[in-house]
Write a structure and sequence with these properties.
Number of domains: 2
Distance between the termini: 39 Å
Structural class: mainly alpha
Strand content: under 5%
Order of helices and strands: HHHHHH
Helix content: 55-70%
Length: 192
């Protein structure tokens, strides 16, 4: 059995290898590498189709949508969105307070909703006064809070990656790879 002293003498690369070797085998979780690979490929293919289809759709909308449009249920639309935002903020608060890992995607999604809220407040303002209030609200409240929340999620991911020896302290979070069932936890690019 390794002692704390034995572990302290390991190099970062040896620790990465040890963590990868001690990781729960995929078979015990009812998964195979093939299933993980196939699922990843299907999700990436779906995203690629969405990207390819969204480009002409944006062009179509830009060409055909009227500059002005009468909207029904305007109040329900905005109240519904703000209720969703409230639910996400409360969920973020509860998950963060209870130190649950699920806080990562929830605070990131909440930050994204705040960015959307700022955008639509500004773009749908009926007058210049409303637009300036919306811009002020976006600059002072919504966008800074979104930055804090998205930064929080990235910070938690970075902490996990550092703790699991997936990245070095000087490396960016972009370098951390997803666990794949392989032994190598992270890929290193040659320097120079």
């Amino acid at each position: 059995m390794l002692t704390d002293e034995d572990i302290a003498r390991l190099t970062p690369e040896q620790r990465r290898e040890l963590i990868a070797r001690l990781g729960r085998p995929l078979e015990e979780m009812g998964l195979t590498r093939g299933e993980l690979r196939d699922g990843r490929r299907r999700r990436l293919a779906l995203l690629a189709v969405c990207v390819v289809l969204l480009v002409p759709w944006i062009g179509y909308l830009a060409d055909t949508l009227p500059e002005r449009h009468q909207v029904r249920s305007w109040d329900a639309t905005w109240v519904g969105f703000d209720v969703l935002l409230l639910v996400m903020l409360v969920l973020s608060l509860l998950l963060g307070w209870r130190r649950k890992l699920l806080v990562v995607p929830v605070v990131c999604a909440t930050g994204a909703l705040l960015v959307c809220d700022a955008w639509f407040d500004i773009m749908t303002a009926a007058s210049w006064n409303e637009r300036w209030v919306s811009v002020a609200s976006a600059v002072v409240v919504e966008l800074p809070l979104a930055g804090v929340l998205i930064g929080w999620s990235a910070g938690v991911l970075r902490l996990l990656a550092l703790r699991l020896w997936m990245v070095e302290p000087h490396q960016h979070l972009w370098r951390a790879g997803l666990p794949s069932g392989r032994r190598a936890v992270s890929r290193r690019r040659p320097r120079g």
